[in-house]
Each structure stands twice: as structure tokens, then as C-alpha cells.
């Protein structure tokens, strides 16, 4: 039977995996057991694996099919490394609760950062994870420490299965110097609305011009659903923001982005405007990403022409291609103006 934690997937596009793996030690934790019972109740094929690294025999006849199936495969495990990665510019640290995502955004950086492991991993040892977060908070006292929960996944899209965002929200509510943030392209916020959050969790919805959503973001929630969810979270007292990413230069981009802010203004309840923040991220790609994207989404209209871009050296690893200064400035200036015209009391956290 499904438990109170685990809402059975009923309506809309709630994610239902096609295959679920468990690492045996995950079943020593209540969350592992609950997910196991949920998978049984959903009649999903269940397999055991000693380690996610050994999942080599995923079904699929071609590389492309294997990739698509992997994105619908859930691996339930225990997070062993409790050293958190940095997460500039959005937060001090990335807090690990999941990696991988069921959506198919063509530009997604997880295609390269997760390498050959596009399946979805979720972790069940939440007490270890929040324990580590407490130590990071103490190290920075009396400064506030922010944790980003959406660096390697879209955690809201998995919440009906894991309940892990709810765990983090409750935990952070009690941390005077800890803050949580996450970003999503999904709208299933119901489980979060009644939680005690103490204003310590900022939710951001990823939004974009219609052209970008329609062409590059398959298997995500629609624009209106995301805005409605933002309104619900604002009314539940959460600080709310928007990430406009990736900002793309396309024919008609000015009208496309102007329309985005018109719709945001029209659909967002007035009370959501308090504490509103924007994060602006221009499209970028690496050479590796381009190669992978062309294999996985061969018909994509995503422009990835190195000759039209500016090369930005990476501190570690390979550099990335961003827009040349003239285009980047035009995008930044236009979008900044739109934001201050429509939401004069909001703030822009960064443009990157
Ligand atoms: O194209 C993706 C770019 O978006 C990355 O450079 C990070 C950036 N980003 C993503 C961001 O500026 N703000 C965010 O809130 C993100 C949604 C989350 C994020 C991810 C972050 O803020 N900082 C990060 O360091 N990341 C990590 O970047 C996750 C992943 O390992 C890496 C990808 O370059
Ligand atoms: Fe990647 Fe976010 Fe799209 Fe998921 S929703 S595929 S994490 S860009």
C-alpha cells in the first residue's frame, strides 16, 4: 500500500518510472522501505543492484533507446560521500538528494555532468545529509549558508516518490542560519504547501519564452502550470523567484521575452511580487555537450555554432561557448528593463 508520504501517481504528468533498482542497504532506511512498498503497489519491475555503478544491462536496442529508458529508471541508494560541492552563483553549497531527471530539455547540462549515468538516483539517508548540512552551517557562522537542492536534478518532479524536499524544508525551517533553495520546471507543489518552512526555503520556477519551452523542453510542465504553482507557493508564504534560463537568441527574441514578462505579470498573483527574485542565465554549451546533444536530439533547432559564440575559459576542465558580449549585453539589458518595468520592487540576483 502507498503510505502517507507517497502520493500514488494519478493525474497529469506525475513521473512514474518504468524500472526501479534498489541498492540493498537502502532498505535499511525507512525512506528506502517506503519507496520499495510504493514501487510494489505500482506494479513496477524491481531489481536489486549491489551498486548503481554496476547497472550496465539497462534495456534498449540502440544508444538512444538506452538513454530514453535510463531517464525513466529510478535507482534508490545511500549517499556515501557527504562532502558537498560548491554551487556558485545560486548558493554556497549543493545539497545532494537526487541526480538525474525525467524531462528532456535539449540544452540540459546534466547530459554531460552525469556522463554515462542518465538514470535517476535518489538517496534515502536524509539524516546523514542534513547532519552534514548542519556542519557546513556551523563552519560559516554567523553568516547565512544557502543550499541549492536542484544542481543535479529537478527534485520537485520526484517529490511524490521520495518526500525528500519536504524533509529538507522542515529541517531548514529550524536552522536560524540555513537556507534552502531549489528550482523546478514542474508544478506538483501540493505536498509542500502546508509544511512549516519558516520562510527559509526559496522556490524558483524556471520560465522562458514560449519558443524555447515549445522547442527545447519536452516532458516538463507547461508555462501556465508553472506560474500557477508559483502563485500557490507564494500564497503558502514561501519566498518565490524565477530563473530565466537558458536565455536564447532566436529570431523574434525581443517579442518572445517581452511576451514572457507580460504573461508573468498577468498570471502572477499580486502577493507573489513581494520578495520576488530573478536569476538570468544565458545559454552556453561545451564541445562535449554539443556532441552529446546532437546524438540524443538529432533534430534539435538549438543553435550551437562555435563560430557565432565567445569562448570562455573554464577554471577547471573545458571552457564553454557563450554569446559574444554584444549579444549578451543586448539580452541582459532588454530583459532587465522588462523586469523592472513589470516588477519594480523585485531584484535580479545575477546574470551569468
Ligand atoms: O548551463 C547551466 C549553468 O547554469 C551552469 O553554469 C550552472 C548554472 N546555474 C544552474 C545557475 O547559474 N544557477 C542555478 O540555480 C542552477 C539551476 C543550479 C546550479 C548548478 C548552480 O547554481 N551552481 C552550480 O554550480 N550548478 C552546477 O553546475 C551543477 C552542475 O554540476 C554544474 C553544471 O555546470
Ligand atoms: Fe535538465 Fe532541468 Fe530539463 Fe530536467 S528539467 S532535463 S534537470 S534542464
Model description:
This protein has one domain: pyruvate-formate lyase- activating enzyme. The protein is built from eleven helices and 15 strands. The protein has helices at 30-41, 63-70, 110-113, 126-140, 159-162, 164-173, 210-216, 223-235, 253-267, 287-296, 325-342, and strands spanning 19-22, 46-48, 73-77, 86-87, 91-94, 98-99, 120-123, 145-148, 178-184, 201-207, 240-247, 277-282, 310-312, 320-322, 347-351. The strands form three sheets. Strands 4-5-8-9-10-11-12-15 form an eight-stranded mixed beta sheet, covered by helices on one side. The chain has a five-stranded mixed beta sheet with strand order 2-1-3-7-6, covered by helices on one side. A two-stranded antiparallel ribbon has the order 13-14. Helix 1 links the parallel strand 1 and strand 2 (46-48).
Task: Based on the model shown, name its key terms.
single chain, 352 residues, alpha/beta, pyruvate-formate lyase- activating enzyme, 8-stranded mixed sheet, 5-stranded mixed sheet, 11 helices, globular, disordered N terminus, binds ligand 0TT, binds iron/sulfur cluster
Q: Which helices and strands occur, and which strands form pairs?
A:
Layout: E1 19-22, H1 30-41, E2 46-48, H2 63-70, E3 73-77, E4 86-87, E5 91-94, E6 98-99, H3 110-113, E7 120-123, H4 126-140, E8 145-148, H5 159-162, H6 164-173, E9 178-184, E10 201-207, H7 210-216, H8 223-235, E11 240-247, H9 253-267, E12 277-282, H10 287-296, E13 310-312, E14 320-322, H11 325-342, E15 347-351
Parallel strand pairs: 1-2, 1-3, 3-7, 5-8, 8-9, 9-10, 10-11, 11-12, 12-15
Antiparallel strand pairs: 4-5, 6-7, 13-14
Helix pairs in contact: 9-11
Bound molecules: ligand 0TT and iron/sulfur cluster.
